[in-house]
Protein backbone atom coordinates (compact mmCIF):
# COMPACT_ATOMS: atom_id res chain seq x y z
CA UNK A 1 0.00 0.00 0.00
CA UNK A 2 1.48 3.29 -1.17
CA UNK A 3 1.11 6.27 1.19
CA UNK A 4 1.70 9.91 0.19
CA UNK A 5 1.62 12.95 2.44
CA UNK A 6 1.24 16.11 0.36
CA UNK A 7 1.25 19.48 2.09
CA UNK A 8 1.72 23.23 1.90
CA UNK A 9 3.07 25.28 4.79
CA UNK A 10 3.99 28.97 4.87
CA UNK A 11 5.63 29.32 8.29
CA UNK A 12 6.33 25.70 9.19
CA UNK A 13 3.44 24.77 11.52
CA UNK A 14 1.69 22.46 9.07
CA UNK A 15 5.11 21.15 8.03
CA UNK A 16 5.76 20.00 11.61
CA UNK A 17 2.45 18.15 11.50
CA UNK A 18 3.40 16.60 8.16
CA UNK A 19 6.72 15.40 9.59
CA UNK A 20 4.97 13.82 12.58
CA UNK A 21 2.42 12.05 10.34
CA UNK A 22 5.33 10.85 8.18
CA UNK A 23 7.09 9.47 11.28
CA UNK A 24 3.98 7.58 12.39
CA UNK A 25 3.22 6.21 8.94
CA UNK A 26 6.84 5.13 8.35
CA UNK A 27 6.70 3.04 11.51
CA UNK A 28 4.12 0.76 9.94
CA UNK A 29 4.63 1.27 6.19
CA UNK A 30 7.95 1.75 4.45
CA UNK A 31 6.27 2.88 1.25
CA UNK A 32 5.47 6.33 2.63
CA UNK A 33 6.50 9.57 0.89
CA UNK A 34 6.38 13.16 2.10
CA UNK A 35 5.92 15.73 -0.68
CA UNK A 36 5.73 19.52 -0.63
CA UNK A 37 2.76 20.40 -2.84
CA UNK A 38 5.02 22.73 -4.84
CA UNK A 39 6.74 19.55 -6.13
CA UNK A 40 3.65 17.33 -6.35
CA UNK A 41 2.36 15.89 -9.62
CA UNK A 42 -1.10 14.56 -10.46
CA UNK A 43 0.55 11.12 -10.82
CA UNK A 44 1.45 11.25 -7.14
CA UNK A 45 -2.24 10.83 -6.41
CA UNK A 46 -2.92 8.37 -9.21
CA UNK A 47 -0.47 5.76 -7.95
CA UNK A 48 -1.20 6.13 -4.22
CA UNK A 49 -3.66 4.16 -2.09
CA UNK A 50 -3.56 6.48 0.90
CA UNK A 51 -3.44 10.28 0.57
CA UNK A 52 -2.91 12.59 3.50
CA UNK A 53 -3.24 16.26 2.56
CA UNK A 54 -2.12 19.16 4.73
CA UNK A 55 -2.77 22.89 4.45
CA UNK A 56 -3.23 25.65 7.04
CA UNK A 57 -6.27 27.92 7.13
CA UNK A 58 -5.52 30.69 4.65
CA UNK A 59 -7.46 33.45 2.89
CA UNK A 60 -10.76 33.52 4.70
CA UNK A 61 -11.10 29.92 5.92
CA UNK A 62 -9.73 28.68 2.61
CA UNK A 63 -6.89 26.60 1.22
CA UNK A 64 -3.70 28.36 0.20
CA UNK A 65 -4.49 29.72 -3.26
CA UNK A 66 -1.27 29.55 -5.26
CA UNK A 67 -0.30 25.88 -4.88
CA UNK A 68 -2.69 23.93 -2.68
CA UNK A 69 -6.03 25.01 -4.16
CA UNK A 70 -4.97 24.42 -7.80
CA UNK A 71 -3.40 21.08 -6.85
CA UNK A 72 -6.52 19.89 -5.03
CA UNK A 73 -8.66 21.04 -7.97
CA UNK A 74 -6.53 18.87 -10.27
CA UNK A 75 -6.74 15.72 -8.12
CA UNK A 76 -10.09 15.88 -6.30
CA UNK A 77 -11.85 13.70 -8.86
CA UNK A 78 -9.16 11.01 -8.52
CA UNK A 79 -9.66 10.54 -4.79
CA UNK A 80 -12.80 8.42 -4.86
CA UNK A 81 -12.11 4.95 -3.47
CA UNK A 82 -8.81 5.97 -1.90
CA UNK A 83 -8.15 6.40 1.80
CA UNK A 84 -7.94 10.14 2.48
CA UNK A 85 -7.11 12.21 5.57
CA UNK A 86 -6.62 15.96 6.05
CA UNK A 87 -4.59 18.05 8.47
CA UNK A 88 -3.39 21.59 9.06
CA UNK A 89 -2.73 24.44 11.42
CA UNK A 90 -4.91 27.52 12.06
CA UNK A 91 -4.77 30.57 14.28
CA UNK A 92 -7.36 33.28 13.71
CA UNK A 93 -10.61 31.35 13.87
CA UNK A 94 -11.76 27.96 15.10
CA UNK A 95 -10.97 25.51 12.38
CA UNK A 96 -13.88 26.10 10.00
CA UNK A 97 -11.61 25.80 6.95
CA UNK A 98 -11.11 22.15 7.78
CA UNK A 99 -14.86 21.55 7.96
CA UNK A 100 -15.31 23.21 4.55
CA UNK A 101 -12.44 21.20 3.07
CA UNK A 102 -13.81 17.89 4.40
CA UNK A 103 -17.32 18.76 3.24
CA UNK A 104 -16.07 19.63 -0.23
CA UNK A 105 -14.46 16.20 -0.59
CA UNK A 106 -17.43 14.37 0.87
CA UNK A 107 -19.71 16.14 -1.59
CA UNK A 108 -17.56 14.63 -4.36
CA UNK A 109 -18.09 11.18 -2.90
CA UNK A 110 -14.69 10.97 -1.22
CA UNK A 111 -14.57 9.36 2.22
CA UNK A 112 -12.44 11.31 4.67
CA UNK A 113 -10.90 8.90 7.17
CA UNK A 114 -9.82 11.55 9.68
CA UNK A 115 -8.96 15.24 10.10
CA UNK A 116 -6.37 16.62 12.51
CA UNK A 117 -6.11 20.35 13.20
CA UNK A 118 -3.62 22.15 15.44
CA UNK A 119 -3.70 25.67 16.83
CA UNK A 120 -0.66 27.70 15.63
CA UNK A 121 2.65 25.99 16.41
CA UNK A 122 1.49 22.41 17.08
CA UNK A 123 1.72 21.29 20.72
CA UNK A 124 3.27 17.97 21.72
CA UNK A 125 -0.28 16.59 22.06
CA UNK A 126 -1.17 17.72 18.56
CA UNK A 127 2.01 16.15 17.18
CA UNK A 128 1.19 12.92 19.00
CA UNK A 129 -2.24 12.98 17.31
CA UNK A 130 -0.44 13.42 13.98
CA UNK A 131 1.82 10.42 14.62
CA UNK A 132 -1.24 8.35 15.58
CA UNK A 133 -3.04 9.38 12.41
CA UNK A 134 -0.03 8.32 10.32
CA UNK A 135 0.18 4.99 12.07
CA UNK A 136 -3.54 4.26 11.85
CA UNK A 137 -4.05 5.17 8.21
CA UNK A 138 -0.87 3.63 6.76
CA UNK A 139 -1.45 0.09 8.05
C1 LIG B 1 -2.73 35.17 4.55
C2 LIG B 1 -3.15 34.40 5.78
C3 LIG B 1 -4.48 34.04 5.94
C4 LIG B 1 -4.90 33.34 7.08
N1 LIG B 1 -6.23 33.01 7.21
C5 LIG B 1 -6.62 32.33 8.33
C6 LIG B 1 -7.98 31.97 8.49
O1 LIG B 1 -8.84 32.23 7.63
N2 LIG B 1 -8.34 31.30 9.62
C7 LIG B 1 -7.43 30.97 10.60
O2 LIG B 1 -7.81 30.34 11.60
N3 LIG B 1 -6.11 31.30 10.45
C8 LIG B 1 -5.70 31.96 9.36
N4 LIG B 1 -4.38 32.27 9.20
C9 LIG B 1 -3.41 31.84 10.22
C10 LIG B 1 -2.67 30.56 9.78
O3 LIG B 1 -3.60 29.53 9.46
C11 LIG B 1 -1.75 30.09 10.91
O4 LIG B 1 -0.77 31.08 11.14
C12 LIG B 1 -1.09 28.75 10.63
O5 LIG B 1 -0.45 28.31 11.81
C13 LIG B 1 -0.05 28.85 9.50
O6 LIG B 1 0.43 27.55 9.24
P1 LIG B 1 1.81 27.30 8.49
O7 LIG B 1 2.92 27.65 9.49
O8 LIG B 1 1.81 25.86 8.15
O9 LIG B 1 1.84 28.21 7.31
C14 LIG B 1 -3.95 32.98 8.08
C15 LIG B 1 -2.61 33.34 7.90
C16 LIG B 1 -2.21 34.04 6.78
C17 LIG B 1 -0.74 34.40 6.62
UniProtKB/TrEMBL annotation:
NCBIfam families in the record: flav_short (TIGR01753)
Pfam families hit by this protein: Flavodoxin_1
Xref: Gene3D superfamilies: 3.40.50.360
Cofactor (UniProt): FMN
Record has Transport as a keyword: yes
Protein's recorded name: Flavodoxin
Alphabetical list of SUPFAM superfamilies matching this protein: Flavoproteins
Function summary: Low-potential electron donor to a number of redox enzymes.
UniProt keywords, alphabetically: Electron transport, Flavoprotein, FMN, Transport
Family per record: Belongs to the flavodoxin family.
Secretion signal span: none
Domain Flavodoxin-like: 3-138
UniProt organism field: Peptoniphilus duerdenii ATCC BAA-1640
Amino acid sequence: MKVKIIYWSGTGNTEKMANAIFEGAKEVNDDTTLINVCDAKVDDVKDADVLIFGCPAMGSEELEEEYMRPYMDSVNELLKGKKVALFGSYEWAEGQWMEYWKEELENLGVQVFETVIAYDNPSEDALADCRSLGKAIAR
